[in-house]
Amino acid sequence: MATNKNNLKVFYNREADALLLALRRGREAECTEIAPGVGVEKDVDGNILGFEILNASRYLKNALPAMVRAIHRRAVSV
């Protein structure tokens, strides 16, 4: 997990090859696919909680290893 000053949290699940960009905390009530393998997660009031990218390594294969290392460095240094 990594965070920035805007409270964006980034999670990567290597086993599922899924990247989650979480904008806010909350219970997911709905996930709408907005592009193949890309979903927007919303709560019961329709507020966007985050975005999920499935098969993330396929879409982000050049950037993903560096992103995972950066996330890991931040998680370890906190």
Q: How would you describe the overall organization of this protein?
A:
This protein is of the alpha+beta class. 23% of the residues lie in helices and 38% in strands. It has two helices and six strands; from the N terminus they run E-E-E-E-E-E-H-H. A six-stranded antiparallel sheet has the order 1-2-3-6-5-4. Mean pLDDT is 82; it is low at 1-5.
Brief write-up:
This protein has 78 residues and is an alpha+beta fold. It has helices spanning 56-59, 64-77, and strands spanning 2-3, 9-13, 18-22, 30-35, 38-42, 48-54.
Number of helices: 2
Share of helix among residues?
10-25%
Strand content: 35-45%
Q: What spatial order of strands do you see in the largest sheet? A: 1-2-3-6-5-4
- Taking the alpha carbons of the first and last residues, their distance comes to 10 Å
Largest sheet: 6 strands, antiparallel
Give the integer mean of the pLDDT values.
Answer: 82
What is the alpha-carbon Rg in Å?
A: 13 Å
From N to C, what is the helix and strand string? Answer: EEEEEEHH
Label the structural class.
Answer: alpha+beta
Unreliable parts? 1-5
- In total, the number of strands is 6
Q: What spatial form do the alpha-carbon principal axes imply?
A: globular
